[in-house]
Amino acid sequence: MNKVILLGRLTRDPEVRYTQTSNTLVASFSLAVNRRFVRQGEERQADFINIVAWSKLGEFCSKYFKKGQQVAIVGRLQTRTWDDDQGTKHYVTEVIAEEAYFADSKRDTTSENTTAFENTFGNTAPGSMGSDFEVSSSSDDLPF
User: Fold this and answer.
1) CA of 133: how far to CAs of 42, 99, 128, 140, in Å?
2) Reported pTM
3) Are 26 and 52 in contact (CB under 8 A)?
4) Which one, of 54, 58, 63, 55, lies nearest residue 120 by Cα?
């Protein structure tokens, strides 16, 4: 199983580009994720992890995520290689985002971003869109 769950802060605003062949939107950004443990006498260290979000999720990230904002990303780890013009082989490891969530507290986010999100997507969390399940408040419909 290849599943990654990260909680961190954006080190820069997402960068948007489009693929040459199908003109698909791709958003890239870096997440600073604090390490769990701190050695005595040292400062907390962070890992800087590259994130790639495609299509609608990439559009969402580019529109609502900003540098310094705390976000949660769920996705998969991917490695790829390529040769540059001088024939040097390059390796990169990145997380391909499958879900993205706001992780700042409500008081830390601007009402402008929240209102814009709700106007676009309604009052639902970004990861819950497209769910086939419905919560019923009545116990009469339950099969047990």
Assistant:
1) 47, 17, 10, 17
2) 0.70
3) yes
4) 63
Token readout for 4 is 């990654």
CA 55 to chain centre: 13
Residue of 136, 133, 134, 114 whose CA lies nearest to 125:
114
Cα dist from 97 to 11, 30, 40, 94, whole Å = 16, 12, 34, 9
C-alpha to C-alpha distance for 47 and 11, rounded to whole angstroms: 11
Q: Which amino acid is present at 91? A: Y
Q: Which fold has domain 4-141?
A: OB fold (Dihydrolipoamide Acetyltransferase, E2P) (2.40.50)
How far is Cα 26 from Cα 56, in angstroms, rounded to an integer? 9
pLDDT at position 133: 40
- Predicted confidence (pLDDT) per residue in 91-136, tens digit: 999 999 999 999 987 665 555 554 544 544 444 444 443 334 444 4
pLDDT band of 141, cuts 50, 70, 90: low
Q: What number is the average pLDDT over the span 20-33? A: 96
Q: Which residue has the tokens 């709700």?
A: 118
Query: Considering only CA atoms, which of 70, 90, 72 is closest in space to residue 81?
Result: 90
